Amino acid sequence: KMEEFLNLTQLKTSLKEAILLDYYTAGFCWAKEMNFSLIQLSGFMDLINFALENLSGKHMTLGDNLKELERAMTGIRETESEERGDLNLFSIDQAKAIIDYLVTSLFKHYKAYEYLFHTRREEPVISNE
């Protein structure tokens, strides 16, 4: 279902799509384990998408992306990227857990994700042989 929701059409041949599916699915499972409400789950998935969009679409540096995440999490609506909704749905402990999750799952591996999104790779030729 996540594959359909994310509109991943080349999952079997695209490493990038496979990694994105894995990241979103892991985030969704983590949020379910945290017993987030549906609104909190939606807000958390929005934060994941926000951070990945800042990296992939806006080519933000790690520092800039962290600043944007801080603004989004503290409810400051005028972020550099776009206007965010009200994400003050999380308790302080939940917000700390979210930050820890994003640091360990995305920001510690930022260079690898930058490589994934911004390094041009040659398309492999697949034949019947």
TrEMBL record:
Transmembrane segments: none annotated. Pfam families: CLAMP (PF14769). PANTHER family: CILIARY-ASSOCIATED CALCIUM-BINDING COILED-COIL PROTEIN 1, COILED-COIL DOMAIN-CONTAINING PROTEIN 189. This is CBCO1 protein. It comes from Prunella fulvescens. The gene is Cabcoco1.
